[in-house]
Amino acid sequence: MKERIIKSALNLFWRYGIKSVTMDDIAKDLGISKRTIYQHYSDKEAILALVIQEEIKTQKNEMEKLDEQASNPIEQMMYASVQMRDTLSNMNPTLLYDLKKYYPAAWELFQNYKHEYIIKSIHDNLIKGIELGLYRPDIDVDVLSMLRVEQIVMAFDPTIFPARKFNMMHTQMQFLLHFLRGVLSEKGFEYYNTIKDKSAIEINTHEK
Amino acid sequence: MKERIIKSALNLFWRYGIKSVTMDDIAKDLGISKRTIYQHYSDKEAILALVIQEEIKTQKNEMEKLDEQASNPIEQMMYASVQMRDTLSNMNPTLLYDLKKYYPAAWELFQNYKHEYIIKSIHDNLIKGIELGLYRPDIDVDVLSMLRVEQIVMAFDPTIFPARKFNMMHTQMQFLLHFLRGVLSEKGFEYYNTIKDKSAIEINTHEK
């Protein structure tokens, strides 16, 4: 039952954001009583914390799988963005914003994940790309890995990219391709040109 | 006297941020009494509003001068960043952050300037670059002009780029060069390669 509650909450948060989902909604979704939920969890925030931990675990696993499949840092970055697209395509854009604004403890979990895992993973990607001569040697990996992660977060910010004007996944893909091109060396470009047509189709599909 | 007060306040804000500068400091700086200041301005916020309007006017003038000197959008973007470096090099990094946090009315003035002028200016630059074949035709100019202006703001954010770890001007220059490379077409690259050595030296000097 505990796992079913987390799974249901994840689905509901994903679709409707966090603020608008109540304990009643989760109970209804599972066809159980609210009391049953309260036997396992004291409140929505307790469920939210577990949902986020669960989602972070899933994303880490998927990223590790992709890293094994990618034959070089350029492919790795493109694969990661395809994964991001799949993960985010049906996510309600208010979710991250709800987190930041109304659930500081859960937001902190996400921030830790961002700092300890995502930034490190981008950082490693940049270092490896420089070593292989695919990225420019004169990029500052600390500055640019921070830029990349903040771009991902920025695309979710409705005060900067309001949903009525910007499609979030399209923005993310513009950011990714722009970021990648910005770090490529000449050798990297030659390689990128051989794979971009295939990948661009893959990445651009459904985006706008 | 009114102009002298604005000029003194601008210098003090620039050097020490806004929060820590008092009416007493401004009076001392000018060797006048605080009462003289109050004859002209009701409080620090009134001075601040004028300081910002004045600074925006100066920056607009300088940008327009540069735009006339630049022979193409790539040069224009590089000139603008050299100007930014000169303007910001002795600015206290807390200034923008002080504004946002403690002076919402003045922050609003800056936000308007950002939206009505800076974003439009980047937008025009991108359109012109695409028309001349120097930038890729597949960039989304709305998305990327927003990205560029938010990057400039982001480099000031001490929660993302703490001053003990990052040099603000170095971060800005990494952002600029990365942004520019990210939008270049192949033709743009060929041109960029002919000017970058000169410009890179110019841009990188004193940066770290």
TrEMBL record, chains A, B:
<dbReference type="InterPro" id="IPR050624">
    <property type="entry name" value="HTH-type_Tx_Regulator"/>
</dbReference>
<dbReference type="InterPro" id="IPR009057">
    <property type="entry name" value="Homeodomain-like_sf"/>
</dbReference>
<feature type="DNA-binding region" description="H-T-H motif">
    <location>
        <begin position="22"/>
        <end position="41"/>
    </location>
</feature>
<dbReference type="InterPro" id="IPR001647">
    <property type="entry name" value="HTH_TetR"/>
</dbReference>
<keyword id="KW-0238">DNA-binding</keyword>
<protein>
    <submittedName>
        <fullName>TetR/AcrR family transcriptional regulator</fullName>
    </submittedName>
</protein>
<dbReference type="GO" id="GO:0003677">
    <property type="term" value="F:DNA binding"/>
</dbReference>
<dbReference type="Pfam" id="PF00440">
    <property type="entry name" value="TetR_N"/>
</dbReference>
<feature type="domain" description="HTH tetR-type">
    <location>
        <begin position="1"/>
        <end position="59"/>
    </location>
</feature>
